[in-house]
Design brief:
Length: 162
């Protein structure tokens, strides 16, 4: 695996910790995805606003922060995206508003990721982009049921552990 900076390593490791809890295999680091994530993050840093790329076949998570470098870590970004799980209803597995960052991170059939962090033009924050392959959040019948699985350690409604 190519050498990752501290931010990338923290974000990558946090992705895989989350995925293991949700019964998904660990992701492999893909330097080409990291490069495409970096290219898109640079474009967004110049623009100063968030917009998804039109890259076909890739999943994409983006966050723009106004926090200083000392306040935002790779694991902190994953935690931010993972908070969307509170909005996801596992009993109704389908696309659900406000959960796409979370579901992409744990999407079972996704196998690769590349992550980049670029400072904003203003110098007062960062654009963070993660590219995933194959893309998650596909909306064919049954895709969410197969790819977005509950945390094995979380108690379910009947109080049993999954």
């Amino acid at each position: 695996m190519p050498e990752l900076d501290d931010f990338q390593k923290s974000c990558f490791d946090a992705h895989n910790e989350l995925r293991q809890k949700h019964q998904s295999q660990v992701l492999e680091w893909n330097p080409d995805l990291a490069s495409s994530a970096s290219d898109w993050a640079k474009r967004l840093a110049d623009k100063g606003y968030m917009q998804h790329s039109d890259t076909t076949g890739l999943g994409e998570n983006i966050v723009i922060t106004d926090e200083d470098d000392g306040n935002i870590t790779g694991s902190g970004v994953v935690d931010k995206w993972a908070r969307e799980e509170a909005l996801y209803d596992y009993t109704n597995p389908k696309w659900q508003k406000g959960t796409s960052h979370f579901t992409q991170m744990i999407w079972k059939s996704t196998t690769e990721v590349g992550i980049a962090r670029v400072p904003l033009e203003s110098g007062k924050g960062y654009v963070i982009v993660a590219h995933y392959k194959p893309a998650g959040n596909t909306n064919r019948a049954g895709d969410y049921a197969k790819n977005v699985l509950a945390d094995e350690a979380e108690p379910q409604e009947n109080g049993d552990m999954v």
